[in-house]
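Follow-up to my post from last week.
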Amino acid sequence: MSCTIELEKGVIDTDLCTNCGACTNLCPYLISFKGRVIRVFNCETENGRCHAFCPRINVDSESLRDDFFDKEIYVPEIGPFYGLYLTRATDTGLRSNSQHGGTTTALLELALKEGFIDSAVLTQSTGGLEPQTIIATRPEDIRNCQGSSFQIPPTLAGLNEALKGEAYKKIGVVGTPCKTLAVYKMIKKLATDDEHGMDKIGMVFGLFCGWGLDWLGLDDLVKRHTTVNKLKQMDILPSSFGVMELKTEDGLIEIPLDEIYPIIKESCKYCTDFTAEFSDISIGGARSSAGWKVDQGWNQLIVRTEKGKELLEIARAKGVLEFKDMEPYNLDKLKKASMNKKRTGLKNLIEKTGNKSDLMYLSPNDPVIKGILNSAPFK
Amino acid sequence: MNEKRILLMGNEAIARGALEGGVSYSTGYPGNPSSEIIETMFSFKDKHEISVEWSVNEIVALEAAAAFSFAGLHAMVAMKQNGINVCSDFLTTVALDDLKGGLLLVVCDDPGPLTSSNEEDSRHFAKIAQVPLLEPSTPQEAKEMAKWLLNFSKQMGIPCILRSVSRLSHGRSGVTLDSIERPKAEPFFDRDKPLVGLPHLVTINHGKLLQKMEKVQQIFEQSPFNQYEGPDDARLIIMTTGLGFLYAREAVETLSLTDTVGILKIGTTWPLPAGLLQKYLKQADEVLFVEEIDPFLEDQVKVLYAETNGEMGAVKFYGKKSGDVQGPGGPGVGEINGDVVLDALTKILQRERPWSKDYAQKAAAHAEKMLVPRELSFCQGCPHRASFLAIKVALDLDGRQGFVVGDIGCYGLAAGATGFNQIKALHCMGSGMGNASGFSKLKSFGFNQPAVAVAGDSTFYHSCIPALVNAQANKADALFVVLDNSVTAMTGFQLNPASCGVAASDLINPIPVEELTRGLGIKTAVLDPVEDIGKAKETVYNFLQEDGVKVIVFRHVCATFKKKKIKDGQRSSARVDQEKCLGEQCGCDRFCVRIINCPAIQYDSPKAKAYIEEDICNGCSMCLQLCPQKAIMLVDTATGEVVK
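User reply:
Got it. Predicted complex:
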């Protein structure tokens, strides 16, 4: 079967597609548009890059992990793990426009300055809507991309663009777990095709992700409550708060989560990665079990590779980031949240296929998955 | 005068006949197989001081021509079979007039359609309107009939129809020419003899028409256009019209039946010469009907037979109704030929066929092996390719399973791969816009698939305007894309109200589509789809998101017309950078040859690279924008210099 048809039938039509963008901008056949990947024409190639890059086809996490991460530091709940930190940008200006503590922006700027990367594929949005992928090469470009977009923009379409030609030699990528997984699949495929192919990816920054929202659904939701040009930022608070916050020129608008749940992106229900396990460093909002307010304005950060460690040390040495002491229960809480997402994702997949040994894109032989399926409530 | 005999196409012969008959005005709307009639009249125009025009549609053509007849001069109107439907409203009313000059309507049918969206037998209109109709069998006869009918129409004061078919219109044979009559009458409209179709006058005029037709029939009984050949005592008689006569003669001669089988060729198909037919019905035991398309003669002769209440004795009828005369498509479907008649005769006479029945199929199968397979395709550089690509992608992005409702023109090919299989409904001139308007009214029934109507510039003026006004007035939500290539391209680049720029002519006052649509208060965008396919896609997508009636005019002159018109001068062609071309590799997979599919783009399989046939490339540069590898450039073919 041609790879475009296989993607359409196996990923798009089955609602597994996350719109990460890994399959787009490679050819004239697949286009990402307003949250959907559309097969415009059929390509007859059977082993195309779209297929190899897709994070929702043939994911062999174990083997991919072994290729890129130290086995010794692997933690089943949250992936490769050198350490968990509570951080925020030291620069208060930067912090004032950030989603949480501005750690991602600060680290990207640092990575660019220190030569870890020469460019960064990022998403720029209007208060979280109309996200666009850009290739940033200057710190000020990076700052323009602060804030989250829950529409899951096809960032990797931008990466595919950046990979064309010789303009960028060490590209930094920032993305949700589906995207960073795809990036590692991309690196593997590129390395297979060309031994230096993988060198072009400088560093991967993962973003913690519970779920994203349907592109058009979020557009409609925002339009019901405010106008797009007044929107400055949006955030979804922990579920105990039961609200989504829209920060607008007219003030804060709280939207009850009951309005959000129906527009959760269907594909996110089949995701088992909360912490972006495939990355050098992954970053999320800090959520202390002692209370949301306790760590508000801070990020939690997992270091997964030597390169990640190195960058974080420079950030500490140069005072780019502030560090906060962490209570031991923070790691336990994160592990628990991460494991919950794995269980939920697997449950939804099994419900979809009606078969415990058919997990669609995931391998039932992966030891972590096996472990979960062999314990309650699956056993 | 010395007799002059020249080779003429049937349509040229019809035009020549009209000229010889003293025609002053010729109008028509282009459509295969009729287009060459008016084209030929244009070639007579200046020398013979004839007024000729391509009208915007057939009813206007007939109405305009009728004015000459009202004023005492001869006029001819030419059209294809679909056209007679368009002008039928006027035809059935003008038939009730007492005409002063000859009014000849030439209609060319397209059996086994080569270029039509129906397979209509226009002869029925002669019966509906109650006007005379003749059917020629050869170009010579076509000329004679055209000439005779103009004067006969004047003599009887009623319009007359000459019916041709594709093979006659486009077949050539030697035609003996006669002298050219020029009109002697001064045109004058007599205000004391109004031509008014008010209801209380209709019954009176209808009665007069029927009386005229009785007289016509008496004249037709003696018409030399009806001929009998064969033995006087033939018991099997073939009754035939038009080209059927030649097919019948071929079959009779092939089977050496000239001594036993008679052929009655009827040229005056309506009203039928009842006396003549009854004479042969009385003589025959068996009658075989040979005609294209419907069993028109067959049905009418059976009526005549029934009307004699048994005086004719027992006659066995063979034809389409009995299933004895039929091609591969079945009786009344597709063209017939000598073989079909041969088949019928051998069956009736229980004779051996001189060659096997599947001979034709075997020959076709053999020929097919020698042919390079080619699919129907837009010409190289055709702007419709860019337009349909833009529409296709925009509909895909829109995601509501939208579709295109089409119309009649080259762009009808967009129902196939060359137009990315976009057209999903195609009927008659102007129907796309009417359909799109109606589809939008399904909204209140839960239907949300957008229907995009497309029509060419000529079709737009022909019959889309009422549909557009209807959509706008009735608050429809519809997107209408006018594919404006400046000429009526499919039928041979005739002028129309959109003709401007390269296609400009002293004969036409150009009327830009957008001026008309904007005048209706309709939001209209005008852009060149070839120049910027991205913008074209975006415009279609954006317009699809808006309520109300919207028009996009995709304007780019027909590439083939331009190439023919500008024979000299700088020529540019696309060229593929062989180093950059990805061929079958991931990221391309022969996108230009497989999907864009312009005939100028070819693929070198051993090298796995695309290349351009520079001799046929029109240099439109569409492929430059679409090559994913940016491997195509535009070069000046004279200097080899890269232009773009």
